[in-house]
Each structure stands twice: as C-alpha cells, then as structure tokens.
Amino acid sequence: MKKKKLLLIGLLVLLFSTGCQKKEGIIRAEEWQDKYPEIYASYMRNEEMEETTFGGSVPIDYLEKYPDLKVFYDGYGFSKEYLRARGHSYALEDVINTARPKAGASCLSCKTADFIEVLERDGVEVNKLNFEEFVAENPQMSTISCYDCHKNEPGVVNLTRSHLTDALDHIDEEINSKTLACAQCHVEYYMDAETKKVILPWEKGTDTDSMLAYYEENNVTDWVHPTTGADLLKAQHPEFETFNGSIHYNMGLSCADCHMPEIEEKGNDLLRTHQWTSPLKSKEGLNKSCISCHGGTTDDLIAKVEDVQRGVYDKQEKVSAELLDFIERLTAAIEDGVLSEDDLAQLRDIHRRAQFKWDFVFVENGEGFHNSVRAHEDLDGARSLIQEGIKILEKYDR
Ligand code: HEC
Ligand code: HEC
Ligand code: HEC
Ligand code: HEC
Predict the structure, then answer these.
(1) In terms of DSSP bridges, do strands 231-232 and 223-224 run parallel, antiparallel, or are they unpaired?
(2) Could you tell which of 144, 242, 257 is best to mutate to test the pocket of ligand 2, judged by most ligand atoms within 8 Å of the CB?
(3) Is residue 258 within 8 Å of 268, Cβ to Cβ?
(4) Looking at the CA of 366, which ligand is closest?
(5) How far apart are the first and last CA of the chain?
(6) Ligand 1: does its nearest atom lie under 6 Å from the Cβ of 255?
(7) How far is the CA of 293 from the centre of ligand 1 (A)?
(8) Is the distance from CB of 171 to CB of 187 less than 8 angstroms?
(9) pLDDT confidence of residue 56
(10) Rounded distance from Cα 301 to ligand 4 centre (Å)
(11) Mean pLDDT of the 282-303 span
(12) Which ligand 2 atom sits nearest the alpha carbon of residue 112?
C-alpha cells in the first residue's frame, strides 16, 4: 500500500515536471517542420527571387539604376552600396555581407531574434557592441524565423521587438496584430547616436511632417551632406506608416491579409502562406485576398495596381531630377560664397526636409501601392520645398 502510494506520488512528480518543462530559448524553424510541414515548406520558399513590374525581390543595384542617389546619399553608407531587399531567408546574411559600415550590433535587430535574446539577457549596452565581433561570437544566429512573430507559440502573434511596443504607447488606436507582426521591422527608425538603441520616431505621429518635427526637436541627424552641409536623415522602410490611413487600412485589412493569403493546403483546410513576397506573383493568392472585394480578373487587378504604381513612379523620377538640380545649385552657391547666413541655414533645412519626403516614398517597398494618396502628398511636399529653395537661390542669380 505504502509502496503504491509512493510510486503514485513519484509518477505525479515526474508527469508534473515534464509537463511544465517549457523549452527555454528559441525553438528553431527546423524544429517545427514535423508539426507544421505545409507552413514550413512555404517558409522555405522565401529563398525564391522573382521580379515584378515595379517590385520583386531580385537584388538590383539601386546606385546603378538611379545614379542621382550617389549625390543624395553622398557621405553616407548608402552611396557605397545599395541593393534592393530580397526575402526573409537572406536578411541575416545580407546585413553581414553589405559593404556599408555598421553603427553597432543593433543593426541585427530586424534580422534575427537571436540578437533580441542577447539584448534582453544582457541589457541595452548590447546595442553598442561591435557588429563584427558580435557576429563572430554568436554563430548560433538564424535569420527571421517563427520565433520573431510567434515566440515559441506558432499561430499566436507574440511581439518580440520592444522598439515597437515602446512606440505603440504613442498610438491611440488599436492596431491589428497581423499588421503589428510586420511593423516590428517594416517601419521607419533611427538609432540613438550614443546608445545605438533602435527608436521609432512616432511621438508626434507617423506622417513625414510629424516625424520631421520629432527629429528636429530631438536633434536627430544621420549624417552631414558633404557639399551642401545639410544635416540629413535617411528614411528606412516605412511600410507600416505608409499603409496606415490608406483605403485598405481603413477597411480593416492587415499586412497578412494581402501578403499571407490562405493558400497552403493541409487536408481539407487552408493555411496562411508563410512566403512573404509580392502578392502579384500568385493568381491563387490574388483570388483569395483581393478578388473577393474587387471582382473581375486577376489580370485586370494587376493592371490597376501597376497604374497606381506608375503614377507614383513617374512623379518620383521628376522630383528626383528637381532635387538633384537644387543640390547642384546650392553646392555651387556655397562654393561661390555668396549666400547670407540666414539663407544658407534655410536652404540647408529645405534640403533636409525635401530629401526626407522624397526618400520616404522612394524606399517604401510597395512602390506607391500601399497608399498612393500619401505618396503623392509627400512627393508634392518635397516639390514645393524645392521650389521655395530655388526661389531663394534665384535672388543671387544676377
Ligand atoms: C491591400 C493589400 C496589401 C496590404 C494590406 C499590404 N500590402 Fe504590401 N504589397 C501589396 C502589393 C500589391 C504590393 C506591390 C507588389 C509589387 O509591386 O510587385 C506590395 C508590396 C510590398 C512589399 C515589397 C514586395 C516586393 O516584392 O516588391 C513589401 C515589403 C510589403 N508590401 C510589405 C507590407 C507590409 C509590411 C504591410 C503592412 C504594414 C503591407 N505590405 C500591407 C499589397 C498589400
Ligand atoms: C524581424 C524583422 C522582420 C519582420 C518581423 C518582418 N519582416 Fe519582412 N523583411 C525584413 C527584412 C530585413 C527584409 C529584407 C531582407 C533582405 O533583403 O536581406 C524583408 C523583406 C520583406 C519582403 C520582400 C521580399 C520579397 O520577395 O518581395 C516582403 C514582401 C516582406 N518582408 C513582408 C513582410 C510581412 C508581410 C511581414 C509580416 C507578416 C514581415 N515582412 C515581417 C524584416 C522583417
Ligand atoms: C513574419 C511573421 C511570422 C513568422 C516569421 C512566422 N509566422 Fe506564422 N503566422 C504569422 C501571422 C501574422 C499569422 C496569422 C495569425 C492570426 O491569424 O492571428 C500566422 C499564423 C500561423 C499559424 C496558424 C495557421 C494559419 O493559417 O493562420 C501557424 C501554425 C504558424 N503561423 C506557424 C508558423 C511557423 C511554424 C513558423 C516558422 C516556420 C512561422 N509561423 C513563422 C506570422 C508569422
Ligand atoms: C476588403 C475589400 C478589399 C480587399 C480585400 C482589397 N481591396 Fe483594393 N480596394 C478596395 C476598395 C473599396 C478600394 C477603393 C475603390 C477602388 O479604387 O476600387 C480599393 C482600391 C484599390 C486600388 C486603387 C488604389 C489607389 O491608390 O487608387 C487598387 C490598385 C487595389 N485596391 C488593389 C487591391 C489588391 C491588389 C488587393 C489584394 C492584394 C486588394 N485591393 C484587396 C477594397 C478592397
């Protein structure tokens, strides 16, 4: 009797301890393969690269395609190398291999959850560690994987980036978790000059004027342009901010509704694809995520998307030429030493703001689709600033 009781207690203790034994640390994508084979297979297809008319994931060389960039980004890493983004599979290797200098280990924030784990364990100082040394000391790192959006609970959105959860304090509305999962990385950010901490500039709002006001107030500058002397800002990849307030956003759609349609078959069920790429590549995906509302054929809808993108692209090219002309004229006037102190300060401020607005549209990966209204507004805003600047310069023309 006694023995039996002991055995029972022993068994219970054993059951309890194994039941509670949650695996610590990051469970890797490969380890979920057996449980979620369809999702894992779609996740592995992020290695595929394919071009679309305006987008796609073939790493074209932006500096070759848009030579004006060498002038705009003069004096900054992006004038040395700038390739188009490709899939999540490459995020970690691409940041390691880029020819651009890295501010600190915090450049890994949006490439791997392994960095976040060390950051949370060892504290904010980790941001400042030397990038190359951190990479050499952490060979276990893997690129964006299940943990980044789910932690160790596949299917549930669990945010892992505190730079996002901190910034959400400034946002009043409730945002769909299937958008927040992506807003962990597809956002505008800057790194604090001293601590190298990643910060999202949302305190005053998520449009360019609010961000510029925030940057002004907090004295944020990414670099000084070598020929105009302007304190410049580099826009990053503001997909979330651009999408915010668009037609589709206001209808309640999330990033995942268009980029993760339910097209992966598991018996009779359909699961969300985990191949994050251009929705225009898959007719099956378009049928699922767009045609339900829009009707018509997928070809017609692709043409509609491309019309919207072409409108933004054409204006972006024109404003790019105007910005180049402005920078060249400002540079010449500075070389001539003719500008008054006030005018020079104002012209530099115009360079800063106009270039940020132009860049915000240029670097946004939806190529104008996510929110064509906002893209046109930003380009128009850049254009009127440039015109204001040209007027000041014309005073010195005679
Ligand atoms: C209403 C549908 C829709 C929503 C919602 C949406 N997107 Fe997109 N996204 C698109 C389309 C269409 C493109 C253009 C693809 C192209 O040009 O090939 C695109 C392009 C992109 C690209 C570039 C892909 C490429 O291959 O060129 C990225 C990155 C992206 N979206 C991220 C996001 C993020 C992050 C969100 C949420 C903040 C989001 N999208 C919300 C439809 C959507
Ligand atoms: C942990 C950071 C992170 C998260 C979270 C994240 N992305 Fe990305 N994403 C990236 C990075 C970095 C790249 C660029 C990779 C490269 O080129 O090296 C990228 C590239 C992309 C691309 C371009 C690839 C292509 O084929 O066009 C798309 C589309 C995309 N992401 C969509 C999404 C969507 C949708 C979500 C949310 C469901 C999301 N991402 C969440 C970091 C992230
Ligand atoms: C970039 C973010 C992101 C990554 C990385 C990611 N997921 Fe997801 N996953 C999502 C989102 C968003 C949903 C939809 C959640 C919802 O409906 O609330 C989802 C849904 C799921 C579901 C539920 C099935 C369904 O159709 O909705 C499972 C299971 C899942 N993910 C497993 C995985 C596994 C396994 C991995 C790694 C191989 C992974 N996820 C990586 C964002 C991600
Ligand atoms: C919930 C319904 C809904 C879904 C889902 C949806 N749309 Fe829309 N979309 C609309 C409405 C409504 C408008 C505004 C009226 C119009 O232009 O047709 C719109 C507008 C557009 C526009 C014109 C945008 C502009 O800037 O002028 C394009 C292009 C478009 N959608 C493409 C897509 C694509 C591609 C998808 C899927 C990836 C999609 N939509 C998914 C409802 C939807």
Answers:
(1) antiparallel
(2) 144
(3) no
(4) 1
(5) 110
(6) yes
(7) 17
(8) no
(9) 86
(10) 9
(11) 97
(12) 1
Q: Is the CB of 369 under 6 A from ligand 1?
A: yes
Q: Indicate whether residue 182 lines ligand 1 (CB < 6 A).
A: yes
Q: Could you give the angle at the alpha carbon of 352 between the alpha carbons of 346 and 358, nearest 5°? A: 130
CA of 43 to the centre of ligand 3 (A): 10
Q: Would you state the structure tokens that stand for residue 60, as one six-digit string? A: 């074209």
For residue 2, what pLDDT is reported?
Answer: 54
337 Rama class: left (phi>0) / alpha (psi -120 to 50) / beta:
left
CA-nearest of 94, 98, 91, 145 to 117 is: 145
With CA atoms as reference, report the closest residue to 80 among 99, 58, 66: 99
Torsion of CA 151, 157, 159, 165, to 10 degrees: -160
Dump pLDDT digits (tens) for 15-31: 444 444 445 799 999 99
Residue 11 has pLDDT above 90, yes or no: no
pLDDT for 19 equals 43
pTM here is 0.94
Task: Tell me phi and psi for residue 324, to 5 degrees.
Answer: -60, -45
* Cβ of 60 less than 6 Å from ligand 2: no
Distance 398 CA to ligand 2 centre (A): 51
284-294 as b/e: b if 16+ CB within 10 A: ebbebbbeeee
CB distance 112 to ligand 2 below 6 Å: no
Q: Which two tokens stand for residue 128?
A: 């400042």
Long-range contacts of residues 116-122, Cβ cutoff 8 Å, at least 24 apart: 116/160, 116/161, 117/25, 117/26
What is the residue with the minimal CA distance to atom 32 of ligand 1? 239
